[in-house]
Amino acid sequence: xxxxxxxxxxxxxxxxxxxxxxxxxxxxxxxxxxxxxxxxxxxxxxxxxxxxxxxxxxxxxxxxxxxxxxxxxxxxxxxxxxxxxxxxxxxxxxxxxxxxxxxxxxxxxxxxxxxxxxxxxxxxxxxxxxxxxxxxxxxxxxxxxxxxxxxxxxxxxxxxxxxxxxxxxxxxxxxxxxxxxxxxxxxxxxxxxxxxxxxxxxxxxxxxxxxxxxxxxxxxxxxxxxxxxxxxxxxxxxxxxxxxxxxxxxxxxxxxxxxxxxxx
Length: 264
Prior knowledge:
Order of helices and strands: EHHEHEEEEHEHEHEEEHHEH
Largest sheet: 5 strands, mixed
Distance between the termini: 38 Å
CATH topology of the largest domain: D-Maltodextrin-Binding Protein, domain 2
Structural class: alpha/beta
Radius of gyration: 18 Å
CATH class of the largest domain: Alpha Beta
Shape: globular
Number of helices: 9
Number of strands: 12
Number of domains: 2
Helix content: 25-40%
């Protein structure tokens, strides 16, 4: 039986054809090493359950769930490099955004503001900015209100529409949104969060990470230039589980300030 696959983390509609092209290339390379995966990406299943499926062929997960709950249950293949930090392949950060007509120009000025975040288990949308807040201002409540949007795109829209004043957006997603989201020009970047390892590719526990990584690296290299440009993908960083310790360490420091905001 073929193994399921999903690439949900950057699966925006405007680049979906290129995501599918990437998967076709990966699947073809997987087949050459006798690793049978589903023909099409799974866009229907509960992704958190799929990540824990022992038969998982391939998925991309957020660094936070990988570091906190998945590390011992999956095989880490590597981390795609999107060129966000040229000197640190495979690393990324979040951009902190506000409306461009907002006179406040620094994070400290948004004390008491309304903050939009995509989800309570998000490194880029929640924990990254809360780490900055904890480092600069301590463990107390900084924002007056927190609005759970359900996704980075929805967080950006919430700021544009005035439902929130500020949000943190994954830098890869932000790059996509500048081309795909109407009214994105109404937003300004206030700054960025501390960099960390990006969103890793994982497979079922016990699978051969080196063979799978070699296959993915070949598939990325074989992508048509137009698809590679749309995705912004440069290559594959051969990350190791211990590379994600920094996310766990920062999450531990951020826990108190997140709790102070009533986010569970």
